[in-house]
Amino acid sequence: MAKNNGSETKKKNKKKSKQSGVNKVSMKLKSVPKDNPFETIWSRRKFDVIGKKRKGEERRIGQARARAIDKRKKTLLKEYEQSGKASVFVDARIGEQNDNLGEFDKAILRSQRERQMKIKKTNKFNLSDEEEDDLNINDGLRDDFNDEVEYGSDEETGQDRSSILRLGRKSVDADIAEGEENRVKSKKEVMEEIIQKSKFFKEQKAREKEENEKLVDQLDKDFESLVQSDALSSLTQPSKMNALKALVNPNFSKDLKKKEVISVSDVSKQDEPDIYDKLVSEMAFEMRARPSDRTKTPEEIAEEEKERLERLEHSANKQSHVSGDDLGDSFTVDDKSLNKKGWVDEILEKNVSEDTGDENSGCSDDSDESEDDEEGTDNEEDDGKGETLKDWEQSVAQSSRLKQELPFKIDAPGSMEDLYALFQDRSNEDIIEAIMRIRKCNPILLAAENRKKMQVFYGLLLQYFATLPNQNPLNFQLLNLLVKPLMEMSTEIPYFSAICARERILRTRTKFTEDIKDPEKSSWPSLKTLLLLRLWSMIYPCSDFRHAVMTPASLLMCEYLTRCPVLSVRDAAIGSFLCSIIFLVTKDNKKYFPEALMFLKALLVAAIDKDPKGIKDSQMYQHLLEFKAPVPLLRIEESIKDIKPLDFLKIMKLPEDSSFFNSQGFRASVLVSVVETLRGFVNVYGEFKAFPEIFLPVSALMVKVADQQNMPGPLQEKLRDVGELITTKVKECHKVRQPLQMRKQKPVPIKLLNPKFEENFIKGRDYDPDRVRAENKKMRRLLRKERRGAVSELRKDNYFLQEVKMKEKQRLDEERAENYGKARAFLQEQEHNFKSGQLGKGRKRRR
């Protein structure tokens, strides 16, 4: 029973505890005391700092929201209300724009402004009372005879009176100045004041000058008396005493000069200026650079050249179009001009008049002279009639000579016929001068249409350059002279020149593919193609990794070397020339062209006795399949005394079956060109890591060629020199090389660093040692904070405007519903009255 009672009591206590759980929470909430706003301490800050928080400061959210709403009502709501209005009332009353002013302060400001306006209006028409002012001034200065006068000298009374007048005048002037400060002076008064001041300063300056002159005269007199005194002579040196006496007495200095002539000449020699002083004095008189001496722009230079050529052309046209009268045709002399005496006749007459003793002889001479003059005039008239034909012939010859001369102003030719007509029967210098004048008369920098003209002219000039090698005889000097203008024009129009070059390369490539199909036809390039390839290698940069012109041009040359069969020594010479062009290309970019090296190696093999075993053992066997001749082409079978340099132009002119190509001298000259080209490649590729593998077979071939019988001595020396150069380069490369080896050192593990702990760590603080980076982080953090604040403010502004719009919409809906209800009630009342019969006039009520 006891156990049952205990369990029941526990259950009751549990029920009580369950029931009292909610009550406990409510009791706790009731036990929390509410904050009394009168007991809380709230100190207002003197300065509001945005984003700064103080410890223990409580935020009054309700008050802040109320202030924000009031602020939006004053600003945002006003703007929203004014946005839908066409006109705005601006309150321009005094003090209404300042909210800090009270009504009393505003009234004071208005009264002050009103008084100022009244004063301005009254002063505008006030006349100055000058007579009254003068009377008042005179009354102030008037003498009062009733006052007692003290006895004294007249000077004292005069001084007192002048001082009184001065003081009175100053006081009056001060009063007048104080009165005139408020009024604006007229132009006449200002000018009078300026004139008075200038007169005053002039008088003051003259007075000071007179006083200075008096002082100087007095000092001179005192100094003269002092110099003549014995006291000064006893205190000064005798040499300096002479100088003092010379200052006082000028005659004394003349006597001293005569005595000191010899000493002065010696001193002048010592006091001669040195080289530095001379240079400084010369620099002082040198012309200085002026702004007009600036360097001219290319446009200005082109404009000046064009104007110069136009002036020369104009003067040449004047000379060519001279009239017949000027050239001597129908030339007549007036009698008046003959009777007139010149300055020579006047001098002769003066001499005759001076000789008084020989008057008769003078008269006879004059008569003889007059007779001679008459005879001369007759002869001249006869000669003038006879020489008209001669003058005409001279004029015709001069006009033909002018036609043959090159005109100064030349238009750019538009076709090959015009170009040939311009260059026909011209010397090389005239052709180059004509090209220069065409470029100067049509400069690209001055007019846009000149670009089209120069593009056409460039294409014609390039075509003219390509046709020159086909002429017989070949004008090689003109080819060299044409290179410079073509290079300059290609820089002016680079895009068009590159297009022209690429098109020519494509046409040459298509022709080569067609020619190589015919075994009876030689597929090696012609002289025109070789000269064009050399021209393009000079015009365009060869150092570019990939170029629009030089890349296809170099590929075309390599294709010639690999695909064209070498059937004669002439083909070998053409191939060596192509290898030299490739060498000039590789000097700038240092690209590896294996085709050129393989071709040169093949030419060296062609100079060795035919040995199938040696060829098979060589690595070059697979590259020598194109040599179809049964006999080595470049083998020298006879001894040669002199080796002439290879004349490439002569080779291209001769026919293919010429006996010159089978001569031993020609073979030797081809081998010399091969060796020199290989020397150039060795110097260019000397820095390659694969240099030994490339050039060791070449050195072995050179040794074999040098050991051949009937090999000339100079050629043997060149072969051995190039072989020794290759061996030295190979040794240097082997010294630099390092053999492959396993890794000796173990891989170094990553260095582990112990973490750094901050003892007094504060959350949110930046511990970056780089202060600039820390400041940047701080600024970015503040920027994000400000951005979030701006976004929240804009969001609150939108909520506020949305509430205003909703209230306005509710008001309009209520007004609309009210008006609708009124109208409906009115209509219902009207309908009720109509149905009840109350709207009829004089009718009885319906039943």
TrEMBL record:
Coiled coil stretches, renumbered: 177-222
Region of interest: Disordered: 1-30, 128-165, 286-335, 349-400, 823-847
Signal sequence segment: none
Biased composition, class Acidic residues, residue ranges: 145-157, 365-384
Compositionally biased residues, Basic and acidic residues: 286-316
Keywords: Coiled coil, Nucleus, Ribosome biogenesis, rRNA processing
KW rRNA processing (keyword) present: yes
Taxonomic superkingdom: Eukaryota
GO terms for cellular component: Noc4p-Nop14p complex; small-subunit processome
Alphabetical list of PANTHER family matching this protein: NOP14, NUCLEOLAR PROTEIN 14
Role description: Involved in nucleolar processing of pre-18S ribosomal RNA. Has a role in the nuclear export of 40S pre-ribosomal subunit to the cytoplasm.
This protein's name: Nucleolar protein 14
Species this protein is from: Chenopodium quinoa (Quinoa)
